[in-house]
Amino acid sequence: MNPIAVIVLLAGGWVVAGISAASENGERPVRPDILVDDFERDSYAPWVAEGEAFGPGPAPGTLPRQMEVTGYHGRRLVNSYYGGDSTVGMLTSPPFTIERRYLAFLIGGGGYPEETYMELLVDGKSVRRATGPNTAPGGSEELDWAVWDVHEFEGRTAVLRIVDRRTGGWGHINVDYIFQTDRNPLEQLKPLETTVQSRYLLLPVAGEGPRTHCRILLGDRVLRYFDIQIAADDSDVRFWAAIDLRDYRGQTVRWEIRPRSARVLVEKRLRQSDAPIWPENLYREAYRPQFHFSPRVGWTNDPNGLVYYDGEYHLFFQHNPFGIQWGNMTWGHAVSRDLVHWEEIGDAILPDERGTIFSGSAVVDLSNTSGLGRPDQPPLCAFYTAAGGHSYQPCPFTQCIAYSLDHGRTWSKYPGNPVVDFIADENRDPKVFWHEASRRWIMVLYVRRDAFSIFSSPNLKEWTLESEAAFPTAHECPELFPLAVEGEPNEVHWILWTASGNHLIGRFDGRRFTAESDVLRSEWGKNCYAGQTWNNAPGGRRVFIGWMNSDGSAYPGMPFNQQMTVPRELTLRRTPEGLRLFARPIQELESLRAKSARFQGVALGNDSPSQSWPVGDLLDIRLAVQNRSAEQIILEVKGVRLSWSPVRGELECLDRRITDLPRDRPLHLRLLVDRTSLEIFALDGSYVMSFCWPFGPKPGQFTITARGGDAVIESLEIHELRSIWENITRQGEQEKPGG
Question: How far is it, in rounded angstroms, from Cα 267 to Cα 176?
Fold first, then answer.
């Protein structure tokens, strides 16, 4: 950190103790700040710790069973909550010389002057003392600025002592970022204001660290609000968050920042620009999926608003534009003409006073039943949950509409929102579609576990509750859609779906869903959740995409987090067990093939138990294996192992298992391998296993081994694929013909 910048930027929200209101001494220039300690290390040394309260070293934020600690600088701080409030201890600094007029620091925790405090000792005598603010139950673990005027001690040697002698409630003290300065903090007590000179305000996002809550206001109107982990220096930047304020150029906006101590960092790191700052190697990063959709930057989860209109497939998605963890839910937006190549066109629906923007769906109102369109332009209507519990002014969860008259490039929120008021709990995730037989719009809504509510409307704005569909294991993200039995176009059934991929097959009459099956599975892997299907897809196709939910370990150091599955075409087929749903990768994926190899009749057995082939980093592998007498057949793709036990009818991969495969049939598999994922489709999509895995960009081997007997590879196709981002510019846009 530039210490001179800190003097200027410690401009708001100081809690000032024991300082004079006199102006600065004008006889000498302001000298650079001197850092006493920022505690950004594993050990307290050269400070001396006594007792147990301060633990082995500076704390990495909040400690176990402690309320969230905020307002500290960087990644570590002094926190005497090790072992809870019952422990005691003391921390003593090495001697230092007082060389500036003020000693400033962050402090929080207990407010007991004789039990929880930091003091300054000069010649062994306590001359200044400060505490945290808390003495009553509740309170806050936020650190705030305190300042001592120490001009009379300049040139003398001093020691700091941080003390925790209290064993009851608020029996701890938090301290961070101690420095000496010549600036008079009283003159810096003013809110942060920014005159908007460019289209974007930019803030750097770190991969981890304390959260800062920001509100940007014009007068009393809140323009944007968000939580962000601000990167203190450029070495820690994952990406730059862009706040589009094009409509407010020339106007001065005001910031409200919590904790107040973070104002320093906001003002120091804030930039303005007429273009976003994208990562240097955008879409070509080592752990960027190359044929699965991921956002340019930020966290993503549920796909939302899937709809086809006028040659474009729209993919909206839950997006955090301000971090690589979940939060600040916004609808991101991408479009495609082939379901393979995607162009991200910016965030579509932003949080407002009703809440952040949770999941939902979208429709084309071709007949303008809503009245939101024009004679020459039917509206695209998006239905989303306004997550009031995540607003700056908490309120209930409700269902709302946003609409677009320019093919989804800009969006307006319906003035009559909400269209479905609060019902219960966190009612959310409206799935809306047109039901031709009843000539009405249908909404399926999650209201409580094990059931979905079904509503109808003539105009998308006024909704009537029709029924409740019982669904054991149901939880959030409902989906309801028709499918004809393959080869029987007049035999139509309905699929009621929940976030996990569990589903029911049944009938729907426009009011009530009647199940004709038990709860069925669609996913046997670890990483597929909250998927939905495209409304209005050409040719009556039912195309699904899901969120590959994971802990994020497949994307080390990346400016984004999480990805989607490949789009999958769903079909309904008759099987010996009854009607079943099948999922196959869309045929359009074949357009990515760059190099192919095909093999047939390859024997596996005692004489040649293994066969191996070199492979690249992006793969589409199709395989049919006939077992003769082997007890186990092992497939290994770039270090990840799949195990087939023909006698037991089991297929296992990465601790997930399919247990009811037919024992008397060849095993047909299709494997999709990207840099960060593996998708397995068994028996033509009767079973699907989805996994996130950090393969990275390295080539590898594909190996098949038969153990305990013989088998034969009836057919094997290995297709190496091209990246879907080949024609994407550094700005994240499709290259134009001739450009």
Answer: 19
